[in-house]
Structure to design on (572 residues):
């Protein structure tokens, strides 16, 4: 795209940029192994005692269980809703133009306000501020736009001729979906599930307002940070980072695979 | 297409041709989008109505009373602190957006210039940190900028300073570092997508016609990447306007933003009506900005990078 001297300058810039991006993560990982009674530097030697400490407490395990269950449930609900919406958008219907802006409402709404909207709603509806009655709806609402934005391009570019061929051969709509569309978009669906999982797993601001008593991992970390800066905080941060990065990284690889033209 | 070879089959009562499953049934499309639309109506649109009601109620020592009044709005108008925090939030969001743009544009250029495996690899490298919790990504700066942090340790080891610098954290500057760090991807990605869509032959033509690199950039590449620039700026601005975690962790007393003031009404002082009124003010403010820009560009382009 650009001349040679420019491209060398850009490469140097990119090296600096990625250093800036990853340096804090490396610092966090280093500190999680720091054998020091206080969080921070200097580095006093390698130790895994902070990991042993957070695993021994049982609190992290409880928070992890809550987070994972919520993430699985919201990923499935949001992906199903996103799939139905993407399929629906291939038809013409009344007020179709409103679907896209509506889906984006949770993204456009300032995140702090969306947390408060849910808090107020749960209060008005008289629901308990529990994990499944309040936090799950909050997570699905926050995940839905991203699930849709991930899945929609894959469905929109799916070649309808394949389905028409199946229908011409006499297949019923449901059969066309399970035998033709589904096998082809399956990697995209898995990718959407994985992305949705991480968005829910990392969801914080809405959860903060509607959760009470129980904890998800980001809430657990937050409460600890606010109470006091403890030396084992980096270890919790690293656990959180690792879970999200591995799951979303897998989703990324899968989604790249289906967007290649050979699949349509 | 198989159907073209089978005219006999086609003459029978078959589903009408269209765009896939059940095309032609206008009701089916509506039916398919209905679940998500209902969900959003219940959990995202309906609550706005509740929020409006709440903002007109009153708090007394007995809690929230359903007595209609405009007390909350009077409080906001009477105390200049709220207007000040709103203006400060606007300023922080605009500055964070601009810093983010300056840092992200060259990287987007770099990514757009890559091909094949290198491109996938660097894109993954770019995405990876952003898939993790922004609580962690904001928190990470504490052990870097803090009193015993990396920056102070390095500067002291190099003999540049004798005492740790105290002002690295808990001020507006630290909030900029946090916001730019946490949200850069939302700037890089749309710019990369719009750069990627530029037809290479246009750039080659400009070069063949004698355009020097800087000329080619300003007269051809930059204007063609503007949709992505706008899209990225809107995203970072929007998210920064609603920021809570980053200013709460890194901003201290001087780096406070409207999100922190709103949250305090619900979590600490229990003045829900005032918090509701402030939330609505924030929605209106963000809505006005979005309407001004979105009107010119269109939502689809802002969020999917599609043209027109």
């Amino acid at each position: 795209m650009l001349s040679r001297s420019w491209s060398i300058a850009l490469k140097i810039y990119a090296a600096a940029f990625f250093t800036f991006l990853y340096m804090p993560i490396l610092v966090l990982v280093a500190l999680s192994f720091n054998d020091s009674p206080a969080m921070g530097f200097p580095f006093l030697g390698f130790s895994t005692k902070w990991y042993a400490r957070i695993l021994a407490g049982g609190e992290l395990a409880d928070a992890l269980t809550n987070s994972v269950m919520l993430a699985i449930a919201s990923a499935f609900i949001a992906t199903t809703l996103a799939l139905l919406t993407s399929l629906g958008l291939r038809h013409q219907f009344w007020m179709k133009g409103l679907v896209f802006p509506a889906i984006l409402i949770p993204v456009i709404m300032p995140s702090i306000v969306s947390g408060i909207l849910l808090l107020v709603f749960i209060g008005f509806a008289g629901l308990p501020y529990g994990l499944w009655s309040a936090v799950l709806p909050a997570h699905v609402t926050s995940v839905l736009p991203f699930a849709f934005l991930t899945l929609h391009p894959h469905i929109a570019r799916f070649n309808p001729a394949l389905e028409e061929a199946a229908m011409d051969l006499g297949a019923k709509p449901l059969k066309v979906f399970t035998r033709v569309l589904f096998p082809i978009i399956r990697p995209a669906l898995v990718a959407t599930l994985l992305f949705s999982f991480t968005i829910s797993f990392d969801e914080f601001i809405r959860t903060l307002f509607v959760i009470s008593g129980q904890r998800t991992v980001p809430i657990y970390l937050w409460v600890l940070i606010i109470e006091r800066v403890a030396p084992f905080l980096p270890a919790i941060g690293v656990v959180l980072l690792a879970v999200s990065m591995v799951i979303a990284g897998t989703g990324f690889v899968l989604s790249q695979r289906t967007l290649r033209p050979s699949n349509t | 297409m198989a159907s073209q070879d089978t005219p006999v089959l086609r003459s029978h009562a078959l589903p009408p041709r269209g765009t896939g499953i059940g095309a032609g049934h206008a009701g089916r499309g509506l039916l398919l989008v209905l679940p998500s639309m209902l969900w959003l109506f219940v959990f995202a649109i309906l609550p706005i109505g509740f929020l409006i009601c709440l903002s007109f109620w009153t708090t007394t020592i007995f809690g929230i009373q359903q007595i209609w009044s405009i007390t909350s709005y009077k409080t906001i108008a009477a105390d200049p602190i709220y207007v000040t925090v709103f203006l400060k939030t606007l300023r922080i969001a605009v500055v964070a957006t601009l810093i983010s743009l300056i840092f992200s544009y060259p990287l987007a250029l770099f990514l757009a210039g890559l091909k094949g495996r290198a491109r996938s690899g660097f894109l993954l490298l770019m995405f990876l940190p952003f898939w993790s919790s922004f609580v962690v990504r904001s928190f990470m700066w504490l052990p870097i900028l803090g009193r015993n942090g990396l920056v102070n340790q390095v500067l002291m080891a190099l003999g540049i300073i004798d005492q740790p610098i105290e002002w690295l954290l808990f001020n507006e500057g630290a909030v900029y570092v946090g916001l730019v760090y946490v949200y850069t991807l939302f700037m890089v990605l749309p710019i990369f997508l719009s750069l990627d869509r530029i037809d290479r032959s246009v750039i080659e033509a400009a070069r063949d016609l004698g355009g020097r690199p800087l000329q080619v950039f300003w007269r051809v590449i930059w204007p063609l990447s503007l949709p992505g620039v706008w899209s990225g700026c809107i995203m970072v601005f929007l998210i920064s306007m609603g920021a809570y975690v980053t200013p709460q962790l890194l901003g201290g007393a001087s780096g406070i933003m409207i999100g922190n003031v709103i949250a305090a009404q619900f979590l600490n002082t229990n003045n829900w009506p005032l918090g509701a009124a402030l939330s609505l003010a924030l929605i209106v403010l963000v809505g006005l900005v979005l309407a001004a820009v979105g009107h010119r560009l269109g939502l689809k382009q802002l969020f999917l990078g599609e043209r027109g």
In short: The radius of gyration of chain B is 26 Å. Strands of chain B lie at 58-60, 63-65.
